[in-house]
Specification:
Number of domains: 1
Number of helices: 6
Order of helices and strands: HHEHHEEEEEEHHE
Strand content: 25-35%
CATH class: Mainly Beta
Length: about 170
């Protein structure tokens, strides 16, 4: 019996020999970023966001809260291996570049609005966003501001953080 157990354990170790255990390497995390990410746009997720918005903004009408909840579900990002990024939020499309800071599991994006521009806007707007990767859950939190603002955000009290707009994204491909 003991020999059979030892044999089974030996086979298990040999069969998983190529697997790695422990936290992902910086390169593995960077590879996780590559692909398409999007907010959960299901009716349940939209309703949950609408309820949160309504509770945080008592003056908002139910239709305004519902529209805002739905709008927050219309966020998608595509990170390409060559360092290019495409962001789509409602009818706004932005293109740019991205870099990955493995130490902070942070994706930094430099983005420029793509044409057609809104009426009266002569120049495309430029912005910088950051996203924090959760490698264990393969999810990302998107902050529509730059690293400096993100660092300031981290110093805020928990109530303020809880009431902030943070897009929670899931890997789609």
């Amino acid at each position: 019996m003991a020999r059979a157990i030892v044999a089974i354990v030996s086979v298990l170790f040999l069969s998983i020999g190529g697997c790695s255990f422990g936290p992902p390497t910086p390169e593995q995390m960077k590879q996780m970023v590559i692909g398409q990410w999007a907010a959960n746009s299901s009716a349940i997720a939209n309703a949950a966001r609408a309820m949160k918005i309504s509770s945080q903004n008592p003056g908002a009408s139910p239709s305004e809260a519902t529209a805002a909840g739905r709008a927050m579900g219309n966020m998608a990002l595509e990170f390409r291996e060559d360092g290019a990024v495409l962001a789509a939020f409602q009818n706004l499309v932005l293109e740019g570049t991205w870099t990955f800071d493995a130490e902070n599991t942070m994706v930094e994006m430099d983005l420029t609005q793509t044409p057609p521009l809104p009426e009266g806007q002569a120049e495309p707007s430029k912005t910088a966003w950051v996203a924090i990767l959760d490698p264990e859950k393969q999810k990302m939190q998107l902050f529509m501001f730059n690293r400096e603002a993100y660092n300031f955000f981290q110093t805020m009290d928990e109530k303020t953080k809880k009431n902030s707009v943070i897009f929670r994204l899931e890997k789609k491909s």
